[in-house]
Design brief:
Distance between the termini: 22 Å
Structural class: alpha/beta
Shape: globular
Helix content: 25-40%
Strand order of the largest sheet: 5-4-3-6-7-8
Largest sheet: 6 strands, mixed
CATH architecture: 3-Layer(aba) Sandwich
Radius of gyration: 16 Å
Number of domains: 1
Strand content: 25-35%
Order of helices and strands: HEEHHEHEEEHEHE
CATH topology: Rossmann fold
Length: 177
């Protein structure tokens, strides 16, 4: 019941901040869509970030989680907020391994066998989230759960399920229609 109320409050915040826009939009993939999810607007708002962190922290409160991970750029503020709220250290996952300095793909302290949750801002097909999950796994982490703030309901849940990963959307696009 508490989670439902927290999610309803998140939906209200997302609506009030016009994070979901309806109309005709061209997505980064080049595809046309009847709506646009402006997650940058959401992840820069302290109220929304706080509510997201509260929900995820509540959901994982009984889990034995070592780290919260988020792929750059959109999920880093979410991972940071969850880390602050839950007092669980975080990881930042780069889009690509850098070719200078330490050449790290993952920033933060990931040890073999660490139990990790991976957070994402929005999912369409789930490919970027899957890439982040694989980065954690390839570096010795055990991905326990994955969360997304808004799922566009265009295959991400099913795609990740095929890979043995359960995606837990906080809200889905149907919550706004």
């Amino acid at each position: 019941m508490v989670i439902k109320q927290e999610k309803d409050h998140l939906i209200s915040l997302l609506k009030a901040n016009q994070v979901i826009k309806f109309g005709k939009f061209t997505l980064s993939s080049g595809r046309e869509s009847d709506y646009y999810v402006d997650m940058k607007k959401a992840i820069t708002d302290p109220q929304i970030l706080s509510q997201v962190a509260k929900i995820i922290s509540h959901i994982i409160s009984d889990d034995d989680i070592d780290l919260v991970a988020g792929p750059a750029l959109g999920a880093v503020p979410i991972a940071t907020a969850v880390a602050l709220h839950s007092q669980i250290p975080m990881l930042m996952i780069r889009k690509a391994q850098k070719d200078y300095g330490t050449s790290q793909l993952i920033e933060g302290e990931l040890k073999e066998g660490d139990r990790v949750i991976v957070v994402e801002d929005v999912t369409t097909t789930g490919n970027s989230l899957l890439k982040a999950v694989r980065a954690v796994q390839d570096n010795g982490g055990v991905v326990e759960r994955t969360f997304v703030v808004v799922d566009r309901e265009e295959g991400a849940v099913e795609q990740l399920k095929k890979e043995g990963i359960i995606l837990e959307p906080l809200v889905s696009i149907k919550d706004f229609k």
